[in-house]
């Protein structure tokens, strides 16, 4: 793999040197492609626009990110920012590259989680939008516009990951192809109106399945913490190495979000029926609420406490979007019944 990695490093250097003026754009693209953005930024507005598609976004985001975690544990995969120093191949001819705050992720690099989850989640969104446009206008050209946006988005997210030295190009391509396939497949099996027991079982299966896999690999001598040690060693600034980029954080987010989805449908089956104006208010209030939920600080130690609270944080996300905010808006905007 050395030739592939080496070419990837030189490509990243070329991309950084030729597009340095667009640094803010690349950083925005990598932020949009962050898997947690699917839960906090994409899910709420899509849910208020179309309930089934919103649930599909949460479902696809959780399952695709969990599978990405499993793939990374099996495939390993270096990251450019640590491989440049770790390989020892660039002692005399060091590439002129720069790290960023979003660079220092702690999990293995293959395939790209940003590319994989973005491809899966946005396939759900653009395919639903294309179907809507086709049914309303009858125009194939208009229906193709969302897919053009899809390709451009994946291109921007993929290049941004190479630009910031978080991934090699082949890892991004693998993520895009895998994510697109998962988006197509998982979009056909959306668990809308399933019982709470279904979501509880799925959530616990994801959680304990990954934990057992981790324990099994550790027993046979495979140290899955190898990437965390490299991240801490080669990241330019130690504060850029954060626990919320740890693989177990992704696991906690996915299991928590699916349990939260089940609880939200259990508390209010079918959801709240609201006109468009109250739905717009719901979007604004949900965005504000989730911003504060995501920014709420969690203790970094002990690790079990952090992961438990991180799990609960994402259990709350569907409750806010599907139950609490719509319920509050319904209460405030409902017209009183006349006798």
From TrEMBL:
Any one GO molecular-function label of the UniProt entry: glucose-6-phosphatase activity
Active site per UniProt: 114 (proton donor), 167 (nucleophile)
Domain of life: Eukaryota
Identification of the protein by name: Glucose-6-phosphatase
GO biological process: gluconeogenesis; glucose 6-phosphate metabolic process
Enzyme class: hydrolase
Record EC number: 3.1.3.9
Entry keyword annotation includes Zinc-finger: no
Protein's cellular compartments: Endoplasmic reticulum membrane
Membrane topology: Multi-pass membrane protein
Family membership noted in the UniProt record: Belongs to the glucose-6-phosphatase family.
InterPro entries assigned to the protein according to its UniProt record, in alphabetical order: Glucose-6-phosphatase (IPR016275), PAP2/HPO (IPR000326), PAP2/HPO_sf (IPR036938)
Keyword annotations of the record: Endoplasmic reticulum, Gluconeogenesis, Hydrolase, Membrane, Transmembrane, Transmembrane helix
GO cellular component term, pick one: endoplasmic reticulum membrane
Organism: Clarias magur (Asian catfish)
Main location: endoplasmic reticulum
């Amino acid at each position: 793999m050395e030739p592939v990695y080496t070419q990837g490093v030189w490509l990243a250097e070329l991309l950084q040197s030729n597009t340095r003026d667009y640094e803010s754009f690349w950083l925005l693209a990598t932020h949009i492609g962050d898997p947690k953005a699917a839960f906090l930024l994409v899910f709420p507005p899509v849910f208020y626009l179309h309930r089934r598609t919103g649930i599909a976004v949460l479902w696809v985001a959780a399952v695709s990110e969990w599978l990405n975690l499993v793939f990374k544990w099996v495939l390993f995969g270096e990251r450019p920012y640590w491989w440049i120093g770790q390989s020892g191949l660039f002692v005399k001819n060091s590439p002129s590259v720069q790290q960023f705050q979003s660079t220092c992720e702690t999990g293995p690099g293959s395939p790209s989680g940003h590319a994989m989850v973005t491809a899966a989640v946005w396939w759900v969104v653009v395919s639903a939008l294309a179907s809507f446009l086709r049914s309303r206008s009858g125009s194939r050209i208009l229906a193709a516009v969302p897919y053009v946006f899809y390709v451009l988005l994946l291109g921007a997210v993929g290049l941004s990951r190479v630009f910031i030295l978080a991934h090699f190009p082949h890892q991004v391509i693998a993520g895009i192809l895998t994510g697109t396939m998962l988006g197509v497949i998982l979009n056909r099996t959306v668990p809308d109106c399933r019982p709470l027991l279904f979501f509880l079982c799925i959530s616990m299966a994801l959680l304990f399945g990954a934990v057992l896999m981790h324990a099994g690999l550790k027993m046979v001598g495979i140290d899955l913490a190898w990437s965390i040690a490299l991240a801490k060693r080669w990241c330019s600034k130690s504060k850029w190495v954060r626990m919320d980029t740890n693989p177990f954080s992704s696991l906690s987010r996915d299991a928590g979000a699916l349990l939260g989805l089940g609880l939200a449908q259990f508390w209010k089956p079918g959801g709240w029926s609201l006109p468009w104006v109250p739905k717009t208010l719901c979007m604004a209030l949900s965005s504000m609420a989730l911003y504060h939920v995501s920014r709420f600080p969690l203790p970094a130690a002990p690790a079990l406490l952090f992961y438990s609270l991180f799990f609960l944080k994402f259990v709350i996300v569907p409750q806010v979007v599907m139950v609490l905010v719509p319920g509050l808006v319904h209460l405030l905007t409902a017209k009183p019944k006349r006798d």
